[in-house]
Structures are given as structure tokens and as C-alpha cells.
């Protein structure tokens, strides 16, 4: 995500090579979604550069590979999983959670497979599961069943709040794309562990995005008062201003919880100006 084209030269220094952009991003935000690992497991050498560019308390929430979660549906893919776990090892404590994102077809009837899979995972990591089947959100029995499976391994349930996106029809190409691809599920705000993770999707309109995250500001503040350590990811359909919005969200939470540390000052763009 730190290589997002819309950020280069506007939010992140434009002259930085790709291998240095994470260092700049880490001055804007102190956590990142490792979404690219879903599509391809990086080399161990690449992950070593990620570790070198980030402070020890930086948080990676790293998605498990697609072959494990979507192709084998947790009932295989041991080789792919082993390669992934070996590749991310250089991140050490920066791995805040391994993110098990499941397809929308993964239903309550599949929860036994999830339970067996979670039991096989190494205990050295924290785990976070994202489900997209509506039954988990609308049927209390299915909800409690999933919570009972997550509890023995202290895994968190990751809500992806898209309610603002689906509150009214899309108005741009980016919103139309999100409308067709993102899950349409109710908002969920119950934390299961001391390390809750939230994914929030707003709109192109900044005002609507900010209005929509108000419940999460209050929830995150309450979690902090309870001694939890939440991680909140702010998205919009094109993510052009996501780092700015993430910092604004952080400031709103900090206004309610003054003990929350501020984010670092963003890296300046010190590229020299030229006339030609």
C-alpha cells in the first residue's frame, strides 16, 4: 500500500525509489495492511528491507496467501503457508497480526475447518479473522459459534465496515468499483481480544467519510480506556487521501484520550527544485 501511485510526490517524497517508500510511509502512519502478500509471497530479502525501514513498534497486519484461504479454503496449502511464514519472519515483533481473510462463500457450516486450521498455526503470532458471509453478522447462533472458535487461540474478528459506502448509490468510477467488490455486511464493533483491528471504508466525499467514522472514534477511545490496543485502517474508494484521513482519525481519538501518543511528523519532500 505504501507504493500507492496517488501518494508519490504529493504525500510521500516523489524522488524516493520504491525500496525506500515504506520508510516515508512509516512517518505518516504507524501501521499498514499487508495486502500484497495475498497475491504473492515476497522473498525473505524483500521482507528484510521492510523491517529495516520501520521502527520496532511499527505494526504489520499481514494477509495470508490466497492459495491457503481461498483456493484450499484452509484445508490444505501447507507448502504455501510454510513459505509465507518463513518469508515474514524478519519482521519479528512488527507482525501485529496474521490476517486470515475468508471468501464470502465461507459460511457457518465451514467453521469447523477454521477451528482445525487455527489449531495448526504456530502460537508465536497473533491472528485476526475476517469473514464476509452475512450469516455471521445476522444470525446470533452463527456469530457465537465463530466467537467460540476464535477464543481458544485468542484470535480477533476483523470487521470491515462498509456501511457508509452502501448507504447510497455510488457517484464515481472508484465508488462504483468498490460497490461491486466490497462486502455488504452490517457494522460490528465487539472486540474479542486486547488487540482489536478495524477496517473502515468511506466515500469520495471527505465529509461523508468523517461522519461515517464517528462511531469508530468513540469505540476506539473506549477500547483504549479499557487498556486495549486497537488498530484502525481508514480507506476510501481510491485511497488518494487515506494517510491524511488516518491521521485525522487518530487526532480525533487522541482528543478523547489525551494519553494516546501523537503520530510522527511526516517525512518532508526535500527534492531540489529545477527549472528544466
From TrEMBL:
<dbReference type="Pfam" id="PF01904">
    <property type="entry name" value="DUF72"/>
</dbReference>
<protein>
    <submittedName>
        <fullName>DUF72 domain-containing protein</fullName>
    </submittedName>
</protein>
<dbReference type="InterPro" id="IPR036520">
    <property type="entry name" value="UPF0759_sf"/>
</dbReference>
<dbReference type="InterPro" id="IPR002763">
    <property type="entry name" value="DUF72"/>
</dbReference>
Amino acid at each position: 500500500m505504501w507504493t500507492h501511485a496517488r501518494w508519490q510526490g504529493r504525500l510521500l517524497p516523489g524522488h524516493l525509489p520504491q525500496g525506500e517508500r515504506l520508510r516515508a510511509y512509516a512517518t505518516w502512519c504507524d501501521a499498514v495492511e499487508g495486502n500484497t502478500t495475498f497475491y504473492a509471497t515476497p522473498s525473505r530479502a524483500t521482507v528484510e528491507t521492510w523491517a529495516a525501514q520501520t521502527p520496532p513498534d511499527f505494526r504489520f497486519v499481514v494477509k495470508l496467501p490466497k492459495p491457503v484461504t481461498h483456493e484450499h479454503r484452509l484445508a490444505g496449502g501447507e507448502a504455501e503457508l510454510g513459505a509465507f511464514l518463513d518469508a515474514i519472519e524478519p519482521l519479528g515483533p512488527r507482525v501485529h497480526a496474521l490476517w486470515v481473510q475468508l471468501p464470502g462463500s465461507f459460511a457457518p457450516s465451514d467453521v469447523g475447518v477454521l477451528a482445525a486450521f487455527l489449531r495448526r498455526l504456530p502460537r508465536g503470532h497473533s491472528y485476526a479473522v475476517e469473514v464476509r458471509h452475512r450469516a455471521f453478522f445476522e444470525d446470533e447462533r452463527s456469530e457465537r459459534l465463530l466467537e467460540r472458535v476464535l477464543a481458544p487461540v485468542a484470535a480477533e474478528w476483523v470487521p470491515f465496515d462498509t456501511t457508509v459506502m452502501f448507504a447510497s448509490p455510488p457517484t464515481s468510477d472508484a465508488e462504483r468499483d468498490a460497490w461491486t467488490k466490497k462486502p455488504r455486511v452490517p457494522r460490528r464493533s465487539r472486540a474479542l481480544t486486547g488487540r482489536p483491528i478495524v477496517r473502515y471504508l468511506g466515500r469520495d466525499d471527505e465529509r461523508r467519510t468523517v461522519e461515517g467514522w464517528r462511531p469508530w472514534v468513540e469505540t476506539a477511545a473506549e477500547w483504549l480506556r479499557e487498556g486495549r490496543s486497537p488498530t484502525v485502517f481508514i480507506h476510501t474508494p481510491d485511497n488518494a487521501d487515506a494517510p491524511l484521513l488516518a491521521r485525522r482519525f487518530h487526532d480525533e481519538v487522541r482528543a478523547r484520550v489525551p494519553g494516546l501518543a501523537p503520530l510522527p511528523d511526516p517525512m518532508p519532500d526535500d527534492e531540489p527544485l529545477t527549472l528544466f
